What does this fold into?
Amino acid sequence: MWDEPYAPGCCCEGGLGRWYRDMTTCWMTVEPLRRRRLVLRIHRWIAERVLAPIARGEDPVVADLEADGALTATLIYMIPPRKLDAWRFWIFLALADLRLALAQPPMLRDEAWARRLFLIPYSIPLRRGVGRMQGDTYA
It folds into this structure.
C-alpha cells in the first residue's frame, strides 16, 4: 500500500515519516497558537486512529468524526466556551474534509493520500477576525 514498508502497527516510518518531519516548520508556525494546537491534535488523531489501524489491516475509526464523536468532543473541549462559536466553523470544516478523505476506497489510500490527511487541518483558513480575538495569541 505504501511506497516503503512499514513495521506492523507502525504508521509513520519511511517516506511518510520523513515527509512529516520535513514539514515540522510548517506545523509549528501555524498561527494563532490555538489553531496550531488544533492542527497538531488532529494530526495525532490521524496517526493513532487512521494510519495505525490501516497499518494493522483494520479500518480507520471514522465514528470519531461524527457530531458526538471522540475527535469532535476533543476539539470542542480545547476551545474556551466563550470562543466556541467563533471556532465552530473551522472545526466543522476540518471534520467534514476528513470524512470526505476517509470515504475514499481503500485501493486509493496511498502515501500521497496520507499526506493529504495531514494537510487538511493545516489548509483550512480562519474566518476573518477569529485569530485576532483576545487570547488567541500569535507566537
User: Anything to note?
Assistant: The chain has a mean pLDDT of 88. The chain is about 55% helix and 0% strand. Residues 40 and 72 are 14 Å apart (CA to CA). The helical segments are 14-22, 24-28, 33-55, 70-77, 84-102, 111-123.
